[in-house]
Amino acid sequence: MPDPYVPKEAIGHGDGGTAALAIGEAESLERRPSAAPPSAGPPGAPVGKPRSLWSDAWHDLRRNPVFVLSALVIVFLVVIAIWPQLIATGNPYRADLAKAQQGSQPGHPFGFDTQGRDVYTRVVYGARASITVGVCATAGAALLGSLLGGLAGFFGGWGDTLLSRLADIFFGIPVILGGLVFLSVVTSTTVWPVVGFIVLLGWPQVSRIARGSVVTAKQNDYVQAARALGAGNGRLLLRHIAPNAVAPVIVVATIALGTYIALEATLSYLGAGLKPPTVSWGIDISTASAYIRSAPHMLLWPAGALSITVLAFIMLGDAVRDALDPKLR
Amino acid sequence: MGRYVVRRLLQMIPVFIGSTFLIFFMVYALGDPVAAMFGDRAPDPATAAQIRRDLYLDQPLGKQYLHYMGQIFQGNFGTAFNGQSVTELMASAFPVTLRLTLVAIVLEMLVGITLGVFSGLRRGRGIDTSVLLLSLIVVSVPTFVSGYLLQFVFGVRWAWAAPSVAPEAPLNELLLPGLVLALVSLAYVTRLTRTSIAENARADYVRTALAKGLPRHRVITRHLLRNSLIPVVTFIGTDIGALMGGAIVTERIFNIHGVGFQLYQGILRQNSPTVVGFVTILVLVFLLANLLVDLLYAVLDPRIRYA
Amino acid sequence: MTNDGHGGEGGGTALLDVRDLTVEFRTRDGVAHAVNGVSYRVAPGETLAVLGESGSGKSVTAQAVMGILDSPPGRVTGGQVLFHGRDLLTLRREERRRIRGAKMAMIFQDALSALNPVLSVGAQLAEMFRVHEGTSRKEARGRAVELMERVGIPAARARVDDYPHQFSGGMRQRIMIAMALALGPDLIIADEPTTALDVTVQAQVMDLLAELQRELTMGLILITHDLGVVADVADTIAVMYAGRIVETAPVHALYRAPAHPYTRGLLESIPRLDHKGRRLHAIKGLPPSLTAIPPGCPFHPRCPLAQDICRTDPPPLYEAGPGRASACHFWKETLDGAR
């Protein structure tokens, strides 16, 4: 049966979501039996000191400016998501209608929004919702996906078939549409319905990758040997197979984190994601979009913050993938 | 080959049922279609019960679903919020979205593949690094941001394109929205092509082609491209369905009265027949596109054709 | 069989004359010196076997001769490749391309990956005529069928539209050979042509190659790590180690008495029926990294005969008898010890 190494998963990213990127490239990583140490040299080129996949990857990453830069941005984002007061002393809710839509002025570098709230403060406080949704949704999808996918790949049989079909069903639903339908009936103003929805549609992506790498790892000679020597299923899974499946899952998850943040913002922009009073870049961009001709600054600042955040996570994932998968370099 | 198609078609059935049921469940079980009809007014209990009976809403969910699907297969998609039949709404919306998708796909192929081939052949050099970085940036800017930016720059500042599209949605007005819709996929096609070209450029058969003394352009077009584009073509195939379903944001920004626009209205007004009807068709399009891709894949790669 | 033209200087009969070729690869870990001053000659109808472990530079030399090095990172940094007396390295790219495939052809190790998976074998064979001779589509196809018949593919006419994966390993390698033969080249370079095949098929393919070579009086460079393959078909052997030729000799002379300790090590490491009961000798250690080739004689860390001079002075190629040479300071001792 043709199994095009093209991401079927690329669905529903149509616009807004950017899930497509995550998969296709990570899946090519999954096709490889186990990521070998980098020996992509000329014929007979020397292979350096043998290092493990992980220490080798770390060695490469530390020297990769893309990784260092994106990691620094992410650390910064996480810090201000936890303690926004560190760099923004104002109150994101304080509105001064007299200043509505005014541009940059001393003490208010990004100007004011249409209700006269300080855009800078709101941009800083907006990081919290995005990062929370991104991190929680990724953690949920990665855990659920790798657990289900890993077990299905390891044990095979009807459970495996069922899971694959189930994943197909979730892939069949366009992400943004599903989000609109599912979330439009929710009244909670917390981040949790959004997180839950993303996990619901995100796990199949991880489960496919995890399943694929477990199936490949299972066929490795050393796993067969361990089985022949009487190792039990639990031991096989934990000691021999899981380590092989972790790398691809980490890569997908890192890139997915970026795309989930974009997805949350898109849903919030459409009015179905986060709801006020939560401070969210998506909501602010949506509000500002009506005034793009008269006061573009209200849109540009949160849009810039959102794009940089997504970019940082995607670049991080890209760098990690390159490090773990030297063949693609 | 014939048996393969049949098997794939059979496999699609449970997926189709599952996906549509999930959407049906979300709309009918989680929302309240009757309450939505009355907007903010409280409905008269007797009238509400009557409507419920008329719409089959007093039945268990499974029965409702079966009834609904039965209606659909007889061509009856129900009535939209504005009193039009959903079928009429579809007849006006789908051609528009189809055109928009077409523009997006053509842009994806032309620009994405060209960029990907160039950077893949110059792997590791300046142009390659810039294309890679640019594609990451494009992927990172959500469509609703890039949409407003491009609309602002091209439509408002420079007035090169219409900032919003006329109801008939002529092709030339769809160029800018098509670009916005394509942007993320375009970046992805670029990266996929680039990776594929770079990987295949080192393949043994490319070395053979060189050793045969073929001119460089022939090595690239006949040997390298032919193999490298297999995954790209299949990606673009799956993207057709994805783009059609994902055009909500683009259609909203440019005020295009297509599928996404109608769906968005349907969701806002909680008009269940519109939402479920459109989504059902989209799921179907998506599944058929996937089937098409599998077949295309078999056509392009003889190793699968004869397997 | 012409067997002249090696060892001595001059001699205008050489079909291919490689002189002092050097190839480098620039990698992340530094510059890899893959080929360091290799010289060899092949006369029409002669078979030269190039023997060496993987990484000895034998394939890279061949790729440099063909002009199909991966560059970057590979680069020819010195030497000459004289083909019919013309230095290929000074030719323009287009001139070189016309020679490639037409006058000198190459056979690769793994035909499954060396043939294009998405094109029929007929199309890949016909391409040779279409590109180099501008033959019509129909005629090219007819000649492709003839070629397939010539290399012994049963039902060639029926199979011309099949794809590489539909053939067995031996048949695929025959198709590779057919492709190399297509335009009647003067020189064929066969890079481990039988390594990927089953033992029984190996002999058939090797026989076919030798037979065609005799018939068409082509020069053949046979690159291999397998001493067993060499003995039957080669006229001359060049043994490579760390990007250098360490010994060249007529095949029987070399088998009788190697003049380099590395060659001796290779010979002693193959099991032989007449030595039943004796221990096999393995060469201790590993080949050097090409980014850090030891000074002096590159083989000295592994050599049982190594003296101080070997650690400091790189040995030149000493003439070690009629038509043979050895890059060992102690070639005489080695030769005597072997006799």
UniProtKB/TrEMBL annotation, chain A:
Every ABC transmembrane type-1 domain range: 127-317
Chain spans, region Disordered: 27-48
Listed Pfam families: BPD_transp_1, OppC_N
SUPFAM superfamilies xref list: MetI-like (SSF161098)
Cross-referenced PROSITE patterns: ABC_TM1
Primary residence: membrane
Membrane topology per record: Multi-pass membrane protein
Keywords annotated in UniProt: Cell membrane, Membrane, Transmembrane, Transmembrane helix, Transport
Subcellular location: Cell membrane
Residue ranges of the TM segments: 66-84, 131-155, 175-203, 245-263, 299-320
Cited InterPro entries: BP-dependent_transpt_permease, MetI-like, MetI-like_sf, OppC_N
Composition skew (Pro residues), residue ranges: 35-45
UniProt record similarity statement: Belongs to the binding-protein-dependent transport system permease family.
Name of the molecule in the record: ABC transporter permease
UniProtKB/TrEMBL annotation, chain B:
Localization terms from the record: Cell membrane
PROSITE patterns found in the cross-reference section: ABC_TM1 (PS50928)
InterPro entries given in the database record: BPD_transp_1_N (IPR045621), MetI-like (IPR000515), MetI-like_sf (IPR035906)
Domain ABC transmembrane type-1: 94-297
Alphabetized Pfam families for the sequence: BPD_transp_1, BPD_transp_1_N
Major site of localization recorded for this protein: membrane
TM annotation in the entry: 12-31, 98-119, 131-154, 174-192, 228-254, 274-300
Alphabetically ordered keywords of this record: Cell membrane, Membrane, Transmembrane, Transmembrane helix, Transport
Membrane topology: Multi-pass membrane protein
Family of the protein in this entry: Belongs to the binding-protein-dependent transport system permease family.
Protein name listed in UniProt: ABC transporter permease
Lineage of the species this protein comes from: Bacteria, Bacillati, Actinomycetota, Actinomycetes, Kitasatosporales
UniProtKB/TrEMBL annotation, chain C:
NCBIfam families: oligo_HPY
Coiled-coil stretches noted in the UniProt entry, renumbered to this chain: none
ABC transporter domain residues: 18-267
Keywords: ATP-binding, Cell membrane, Membrane, Nucleotide-binding, Transport
Classification lineage: Bacteria, Bacillati, Actinomycetota, Actinomycetes, Kitasatosporales
Protein name: ABC transporter ATP-binding protein
Sequence similarity: Belongs to the ABC transporter superfamily.
Record has Nucleotide-binding as a keyword: yes
